[in-house]
Amino acid sequence: MVKGRGGQPAALVLNWTRVGAEIPYDMVNALRARGVALTVMSCERMMAGEGTRVYAGTAPGRAPFTLTVSERSAPVANANSYYGANVSLDGRHPPRGSTAQCDF
Question: Which pLDDT score is estimated for 26?
Answer without folding.
Answer: 95
